[in-house]
Amino acid sequence: MIYFGLPALAQNFGFIFSLNRLAAAVIALNLNSAAYIAEIVRAGIQSIDPGQTEASQALGLSSVQTMRHVIFPQALRRMLPPLGNEFISLLKDTSLVAIIGFEELFRKGQLIVAENYRSFEIYATVALVYLFLTLLSSQAFSRFERSLNPINEKSN
Fold this sequence. Notes:
Elements: H1 5-12, H2 21-46, H3 50-58, H4 63-93, H5 105-116, H6 119-148
Helix pairs in contact: 2-4, 3-4, 4-6, 5-6
């Protein structure tokens, strides 16, 4: 819709409008992820007990200080798993921009298959690269989660 739809819509109104493929891909992926990330952040903040806010106000903290020093650090630990999942989904969704001809990993695989007709090997390699990136991202988020855990696992 971003790459093909907006220029067509603008043309109906008499405007000449075009986006390059990279800009269209970035806009589309950002719009798709923004709603999910906003919901994750909202749910993370709302998951903190209201007593935390009351206690910080009783200590004389402003609402900004309360959010910065009390609510958000606790909420961040709760938001990390779904944010990690969203990041991994976004990583995999980049293959969708091959539809507009943007040459990302999947599109490069398509072009190589068109040259040598060895689809299984090429697509298997592309899948392995996506698997590697997903596992690497998952491990990075797991380590970050553990580093934010107030209860150190070494004491077990």
